[in-house]
Structure formats: C-alpha cells, structure tokens
Hints:
Shape: globular
CATH superfamily: Electron Transport, Fmn-binding Protein, Chain A
Structural class: alpha+beta
CATH class: Mainly Beta
Low-confidence stretches: none
Helix content: 10-25%
Radius of gyration: 17 Å
CATH architecture: Roll
Distance between the termini: 41 Å
Largest sheet: 8 strands, mixed
Strand content: 35-45%
Order of helices and strands: EHEEEEHEEHHE
Mean pLDDT: 92
Number of strands: 8
CATH topology: Pnp Oxidase, Chain A
Number of helices: 4
Amino acid sequence: MKIIRDVGTGVDLDAVLAKPLVAHLATSAPEGPRDSPLWFLWEKERLWIIGTAGDTFPERVRQTAACAMGIVDFDASSGTFIHIGFRGTADVKPFDKQRADRLLAKYLGPERAAWDPRFQALGQENVLICFQPESVVVRDQSYQPLSPIRE
C-alpha cells in the first residue's frame, strides 16, 4: 500500500481511522458511478464494511472490484479538516460475526444489548466487503478558525 501525504502532514492514519467517521464508497454501475455512505472498520490495512440484504453496493463490487473510498474528519469549531482518500479493490466475503461486532461497537458502543435491534440481529444472510487499498492519499487541510461557530 502506497501512502501519499501532503508535505508536512503528520496525520496518524490509524488514529483517524479508529474514529467513528463515515466513509463514502465509490463504485461503478452500468447507469454511472455510485456513492454509498457507510460505517467501516480499519483492520490489518483493510477497510471492512457490512453489506445487508437490501444494499446494492455488494453486487456492484462483485461486478467491478476497482473502487475508491473517501473519509473526512471535520470539526468546524477547531478547524480540523483531514481527508483520506483510498483507491484499490474490494471483495465480497462471507459474514464474520466477530468482525461485524467490532465494526458496530465502534459506532454503537461496547454494550451489544443497548444496540438498535436491527444491528443485534445481523447474521449469515449479510456479507462483509473487504477493501484493499493500493494507494492512500492523506491531506491535512485544517485551518485556524477566526471566531467561534454560532448556531
């Protein structure tokens, strides 16, 4: 995996990807490109995504493995603006309950009993998407806010 960083970017990739951020998976379809906002798990230099019965992106990945993912860590009050862009390939894998539970705990907390019932009931009818990056672009576009954000 080739990591491309802007000059002076000291972003800790693992620390950013450990946060409960939203990834956007870009895939190809006969009708044109598609974008799917998703939760993800970063493990062993792979991004893992849960695909459920109603999702259309697993079939697009089966048809065309080449895809891209973008993740942004943005906080207007501090001026944090970090963009991580991935290019690579993805595979549809059988559902792995332990890995899926680690992914869901990242967003829903460690107490499985407190999760929304939709997430407690995930089983073998689902799949996991394993995204293997070929390149990662890390950009720190953070800035110093001039004044506090007012609502």
